[in-house]
Amino acid sequence: MYSDSVGFQKYKVEGNEYKNIICSFGTENSKRIVIGAHYDVCGDQQGADDNATGVTALLELARMLQNQKLQYRVDLVAYTLEEPPYFRTENMGSYVHAKYLKDNNIDVYGMASVEMIGYFKDEKGSQDFPISVLSWIYGNKGDFITLVKKFSGAGPFVGNFIDHFKESNQIKAETFPAPKFVGGVDYSDHLNYWKFDFPALMITDTSFFRNKNYHKTTDTLETLDIKRMTKVIDAIFLSIIHLK
């Protein structure tokens, strides 16, 4: 076993039992970091990018974090019930987890949601945006990973994580600070940590703004760029171990 401990956070919805899976490292440290990804899919499809890529990141991070001397406790959390019909409800696994942290006054430095990190395109016109003017800033090629944060008041964890992510020089990365009303900004598990005032960000290939296989049966392994996805995971790992 790679980690210090593995546990299940079980809860019931409409008579059925669901669970978050929590894998912890550096448990001797009181302040913790949460790196999370949902493991459910939308409907009867593979969900290769959404969100097998995020789960792959958690599994690989578990391997990489073993025997590391960490300044913080790191909880890798695989969430259930992120997808519809439970999205934006208190039945989301990430809501249950974030509420637990808040209710128990657990010292959380910050959280990063790993949401779709495997789809990249170098062709012009392969990247869309919720606001068209953003293409002037970020370009129209889907060749970067995005670090999505609050427009203001993101907190020191978010700034430090983004700095280390970019300084790792693993992959082209863009920071996207935006208010919640901009479409897609809170379309993942980090939204529940924001609800409980924890610093949080999302790491994403921008989902349906780039990957037109989103929530379709065409979201398959063959569509992914594994090499660049690996670089994203490496950058997450380097960010975790260098956080101050």
Automatic annotation (TrEMBL):
Pfam families tied to this protein: Peptidase_M28
Gene3D superfamilies: Zn peptidases
Limits of the Peptidase M28 domain: 20-236
Protein name per Swiss-Prot or TrEMBL: Peptidase M28 domain-containing protein
Source organism: Chryseobacterium contaminans
Lineage: Bacteria, Pseudomonadati, Bacteroidota, Flavobacteriia, Flavobacteriales
